[in-house]
Predict the 3D structure of the following.
Amino acid sequence: MAAVLDSVRAFFAPTTFTLDLENAGDVVARENLLDRAMGADRRKKSSEKLRHGRVPAEGLALVARDRAGHVVGTVRLWNVEAGVDRETRPVDALLLGPLAVDPAYEGKGMGSALMRAAVLEAKKRGHGAILLVGDAPYYERFGFFAEKTRHLVMPGPFQRERFLALELKEGWLSGAAGMVVACGRKLAQPPISKAA
């Protein structure tokens, strides 16, 4: 992961932020950032249904930090099954999101740096495709297009033109059809203590 972050840092030469792996101490700052950037209704989205009760894919939860070390940007990728292939086998993929940048840091290349680092790391880890729901004009520059998801559906309401995919391995989503469902690691449940 360090090599990927170093290559993205060299490309952007950021002077106001650094990229890092998310750690347990970032949870409150990340959630506050997402609330500020995306609003209170963010938990009602179809993508959130796929993330609920799960942990991000291994090594694919990234943050941007300001010079003082505060979290000012975040992106996470989640294990999903992108429907099934022609032989009805599940098609493993990743779901990206949410990507968020503190409004004070917008326009400084932070979102692009987080995206490039996430895509590079996912590819390095051998994943075949990344799905997301977002603004096509923004994500098309990273290679995400709606045509790759034309036979897939999200759980709950979603806008077809905003449902995009990037194949990290050519043809990975060819023949994939059906519902996107969550898979991967679940959040550990704290033990329930019983009163004596």
Summary: Helices lie at 2-12, 27-38, 46-51, 110-124, 136-139. The chain has one domain: 2-182. The CA atoms of residues 55 and 67 lie 27 Å apart. The mean pLDDT is 89.
